[in-house]
Amino acid sequence: MKTKSRVLASVLALGLSVTTLAACSSNNNDNGSNNAGGASNAGNAAGAKDTITALLPPVSPTYQENFDQMAKDFNAKYPNLTLKIEPASWEDMTQKLDTQVNAGSPPDIAFIGSDGISKYVQQGMLMDIKDAATPDMISDFDTAPFEYMKNGAGIYGFPAYMEAHALGGNKEFLEKAGIDYKNVQKNGWTYDEFREAIKKGVVKEGNKTSRYGFVFATAGVASKDYLGVLVKGAGMPNAFTTDNKYAYTSKNYLEVLKDIRQLIDDGSMPKELSSVDAGKRWNMFLTGQTMITGKGLATFENSANKNNEKIDANDGSAVKGSIKTDYIVLPVPSFAGQPPVTTVAVDGYVTFRGKKEPSAEHKANVVKAAYFLASGKVAATTNNDLFVANITKSGKTAAEGMTTNRNPDNVAAVGVLLSHAAPARPDIPVELGAKAIKLEDEVIVPKLQALLAGEISPEDMYDAVKKAAIDTFGEDGVVKE
């Protein structure tokens, strides 16, 4: 969850008390071996005691509450193995992981977005498990999400879910604005259609806007999300074309930048959008200050339902000033006449190694732990809490007795979104992927913040990204139109 994603359920993590553990401690077992951060466990016989470390954020609303039970269940299944979990918040997950990686002693397993795999592969700190993952493990997963855990010929962990990045609407407000949301769920909408729709959702009281048509989190951990989600539907499903040319020098990229600025200038989005983080975005939605919110994740329907229950119970624990809300899944609009493409978050349990090559026994144990977390009861419980579909056969079986109160229209809408999912690109060379991440962090994110704040024009940002891309990938390594 930067989740990549990787910001899945980030707002639900606010206020969670996190106890920090030592991520890479020694394994003080009977044979005195030390497997800190996946270091060599040479000398361990089959069945010898071993400890697997995992750095895990609040993947779902109740995920971290289950850590003790997860560890107990894993030890019951593998009596010689100990699963030692270090909790992290979404806000400090990347910093914690990078600190440990830079020290050469990362956890054996970390929950991250698949889009971060190339970065750590380039640093030589990921553990390729293609020779340790059994055929039964691999065949348990749906093919599409599993492909996201690959880079080149390597396999670097197991996926937890394939989550569609969508928008979320307030049913009452959509209906008042005359928006046929069921048709939009089935057939999508263009940017022009979306622009006109969110204008209808704006409510003003004098010169003050009391409700916006659309709000998207663009600050903090969500700073990469807005543009990354939108450009998928503008003919750029990935940062690289199929012949590995950097795509964001396309004229369509400029069109998306113009549209981003236009929605603010229309008054459909707040002028202060660049300061809206994930928590504020969700608060604005629950308190009726916006008709549509983004990034919309399936778990938000569950969160809205629970807040509605708190309002009904009048127990004072609901979000202050919130109103009852029927959450509606909506697609992201498409741009420049391009077909819809859904951004998907395939986050999962990525396997790391230390400076030393891990022993075959320790590697196999790490794979057992990663698979345990990504499948069966653990996966079913987590995904049910998130309102996302299970992507393993074992998870689907375990979920059969679990109940959920999802809106069937939303279930169908997510199905449509996933049918347009951007394909995995394990063929992109590691060095290109790492360079693209660096360009995003150093150029795109700060320039986008300036664009949202009205400090630069779309053209200014486009020119800056284009120059940086040519400097990074060369004249022949970028799209020319």
From TrEMBL:
UniProt keyword annotation of Ribonucleoprotein present: no
PROSITE patterns with a match to the protein in the record: PROKAR_LIPOPROTEIN
InterPro entries from the UniProt entry: Bact_solute-bd_prot1, SBP
Domain of life of the organism encoding this protein: Bacteria
Keywords: Cell membrane, Lipoprotein, Membrane, Palmitate, Signal
SUPFAM superfamilies: Periplasmic binding protein-like II (SSF53850)
Gene3D superfamilies for this protein: Periplasmic binding protein-like II
Signal peptide annotation: 1-22
Protein name: Extracellular solute-binding protein
